[in-house]
């Protein structure tokens, strides 16, 4: 029986290449840096697995400091000696030291550990993660959704044209940043992208009740396929009210951290899609439970992220491919983060707006360990 022998935690910063604004905040400005926490698990046979957490205080309460200390002081001691294939046991142990409040406690920290264990277990089985999870290795291509950052028509038009030239076919944009421009922006994206594109509006909790219904009705005419998280995560009653009048498919993101959270929305018929976001949901194991809930409710899913790096992008795509999902996946970290130093072979895994999952065991990519050490945030700077 192979067990977890050691856990190493690496808080790092990567350069931000493009400013990314959404209604509840920003993922950073060009020229600044973004925080990531990498976790490396080593088992009793010497095999390693990598996971990643992407703290973004503008989105959640977790920070690079809290994820680092929580993982080192609480999660790591609890899982030493854990059998590497016991994924349910992993989450029981993590929950025993960091429990839940209204929803999953420290999901981003737990997601990094969960991802590393899945990578390790699949590597030990010599299987691609999607095969380890029960899917076919033949499912190997996931189409990405390009995130449009512009909030004026002309710039959006040029941005979409540029993305099409790069091979992207699907598009998402941040609604409620400048609500007065949302309809014109949606129209410009649809007209430029064409009728085959999946166009996805994400409000990131930013609408007022009177705005949401007006914009949702307009989105129908503009060809938007889904409206995501129009209201604050704790305002379930606003979703109920909107649902009774809303003509456009709805989804939630920040409101659906745990499988139980999504169950509430699905059971009331308030959503038309599950948004699979591995980092937000505490890892791959809880995400599998969310997908099972969506399937039981007859709902499809979409894939999203937190401007994560290539490691999480690959893990999320491996999960999606397990179920035959081919996209769109709004995994946009590469648009805003320079991760080339960590993943010098990135071009082998992503071309023409599509993630290509190879036959490598585990998640399929690993960061350059020497460069991880160079990018490390020193303890005194945390």
TrEMBL record:
Keywords: Isomerase, Metal-binding. The keyword Chaperone does not apply. PROSITE patterns: MR_MLE_2. It comes from the Bacteria. Gene3D superfamilies: Enolase-like C-terminal domain, Enolase-like, N-terminal domain. Residues 153-249 form the Mandelate racemase/muconate lactonizing enzyme C-terminal domain. One of its GO terms (biological process) is amino acid catabolic process. The keyword Metal-binding applies. InterPro entries: Enolase-like_C_sf, Enolase-like_N, Enolase_C-like, Mandel_Rmase/mucon_lact_enz_CS, Mandelate_racemase_C, Mandelate_racemase_N_dom. GO terms for molecular function: metal ion binding; racemase and epimerase activity. Belongs to the mandelate racemase/muconate lactonizing enzyme family. This is Mandelate racemase. The lineage of its organism: Bacteria, Bacillati, Chloroflexota, Ktedonobacteria, Ktedonobacterales.
């Amino acid at each position: 029986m192979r067990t977890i022998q050691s856990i190493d935690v690496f808080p790092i910063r990567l350069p931000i290449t493009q400013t990314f604004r959404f209604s509840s905040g920003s993922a950073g400005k060009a020229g600044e840096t973004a925080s990531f926490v990498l976790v490396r698990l080593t088992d009793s046979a010497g095999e390693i697995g990598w996971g990643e957490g992407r703290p973004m205080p503008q989105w959640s309460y977790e920070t690079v400091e809290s994820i680092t200390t929580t993982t080192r002081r609480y999660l790591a001691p609890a899982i030493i000696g854990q059998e590497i294939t016991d994924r349910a046991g992993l989450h029981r142990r993590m929950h025993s030291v960091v429990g839940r409040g209204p929803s999953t406690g420290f999901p981003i920290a737990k997601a990094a550990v969960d991802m590393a264990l899945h990578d390790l277990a699949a590597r030990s089985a010599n299987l691609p993660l999607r095969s380890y999870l029960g899917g076919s290795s033949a499912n190997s291509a996931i189409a990405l959704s390009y995130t449009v950052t512009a909030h004026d028509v002309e710039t959006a038009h040029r941005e979409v044209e540029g993305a099409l030239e790069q091979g992207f076919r699907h598009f998402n944009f941040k609604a409620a940043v400048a609500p007065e421009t949302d309809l014109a922006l949606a129209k410009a994206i649809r007209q430029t992208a064409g009728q085959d594109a999946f166009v996805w509006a994400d409000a990131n909790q930013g609408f007022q009740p009177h705005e949401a219904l007006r914009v949702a009705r307009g989105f129908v005419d503009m060809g938007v396929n889904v409206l995501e998280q129009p209201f604050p995560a704790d305002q379930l009653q606003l979703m109920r009210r909107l649902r009774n009048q809303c003509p456009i498919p709805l989804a939630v993101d920040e409101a659906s951290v745990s499988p139980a959270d999504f169950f509430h929305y699905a059971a009331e018929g308030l959503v038309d899609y599950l948004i699979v976001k591995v980092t937000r949901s505490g890892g791959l194991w809880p995400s599998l439970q969310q997908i099972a809930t969506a399937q039981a409710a007859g709902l499809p899913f979409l894939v999203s992220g937190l401007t994560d790096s290539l490691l999480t992008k690959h893990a999320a795509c491996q999960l999606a491919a397990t179920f035959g999902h081919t996209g769109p996946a709004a995994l946009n970290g590469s648009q805003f983060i320079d991760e080339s130093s960590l993943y010098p072979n990135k071009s082998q895994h992503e071309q023409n707006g599509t993630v290509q999952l190879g036959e490598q065991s585990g998640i399929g990519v690993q960061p350059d360990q020497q460069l991880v050490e160079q990018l490390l945030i020193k303890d005194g700077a945390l």
